[in-house]
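Hey, quick one: can you model this chain's 3D structure?
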Amino acid sequence: MAAKVEPFWKRKTLEQLDQPEWESLCDGCGLCCLQKLEDEEDGGVYYTRIACKLLDMNTCRCTDYANRRQFVPDCIQLTPGKANTFQWLPPTCGYRLVAEGKDLPLWHHLVCGDPNAVHDAGISQSGRMLSENSVAEDDWEDHMIFRAG
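Sure thing. Here's the predicted structure for all 149 residues.
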């Protein structure tokens, strides 16, 4: 009987992941692509339901991932070397969980095999987001949904 092989996210460090493995950790929730506000007093980061102009608000995927930084210069590039800064990501994020030495949730597509499970579980904001083009930046505060951390 063959020994069960641990999944790559349990047996490798983030730095050991190849590019396809790294990219596959993204659960497709789209929460990192929501506009965020930072509290100047305590440094807290608050998520809004305002979506980046490149985010497909139903699939929660970037519509031009390969070229996103040309259109959104401040789009944050997640890399294994920046794992110690992932605290601003939602606590359900695959990158953050693996960086913290935790396992992926049961609804993560790498665990269950269903890329829509993140939506079915209510983790994503699919169908509940607003386009950043439809809300004045001065009004973003009215659309906060949770605090990161």
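One thing worth noting: The beta strands are 34-38, 45-51, 130-131, 144-147.
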